[in-house]
Each structure stands twice: as C-alpha cells, then as structure tokens.
Amino acid sequence: MTRLTQRVRRLEGRSGTTPPRPWELGGWERLSEADQLREMERYVAAYPDSPLARQVCAMTALSDVELEACIATLKAQEGAPS
User: Fold this and answer.
1) For residue 29, what are the domain limits?
2) Could you report how far apart the first and last alpha carbons of the chain are, in Å?
3) What is the pLDDT of residues 6-62, one digit of tens each?
4) pTM of this structure
5) How far apart are CA 51 and CA 82, in angstroms?
6) N or C end of the chain: which has fewer CB within 10 A?
7) DSSP readout, the chain?
8) Within 13 Å and on the Cβ side, how many CA atoms surround 61?
C-alpha cells in the first residue's frame, strides 16, 4: 500500500493536482513560525514531486550569496510601486 500511495502522490505532483498547500488550510495564521515550518516540511516530504517541493529544494541548494541576492530582489520588488 505504501508503494501505491507514493506513486499516487508522485503522479499528483506531476499533474498539479496535489492537496491544498499548508497555508491554504484554515488556521495557518494562528500557528507559530516553528509550526508553520514543520507543516511545510511535512508537505514537502509527503509530496516530493510537487511544484512547492521543487521550489523548496531549489532554495535550499542556493549559496549564501545567491540567497542574499534573492532577498534583495524581493525587498526591491516590495518597495516598487505597483
């Protein structure tokens, strides 16, 4: 049964039909940052082929310099007028 579950999750991730992401469920904003991080980690572990899991893996592979550049870009975009 575990193999079937893993295969279904992998196929769901590829087709984009995964369950709602953790923050799309009720009560996300009431969780502490640590609990939110744990929920994200559970989701990524459960759906390793999902787009979110791929993004998380890509972010964790960034060097410190690349990560700082991404943060600077995001901060610049926040400050830019819409």
Assistant:
1) 2-79
2) 49
3) 787 777 767 766 678 888 888 999 999 999 999 999 999 988 888 888 888 998 899
4) 0.62
5) 27
6) C
7) -HHHHHHHHHHHHHHT-PPPPGGGSTTGGGS-HHHHHHHHHHHHHH-TTSHHHHHHHHHHT--HHHHHHHHHHHHHHHHS--
8) 6
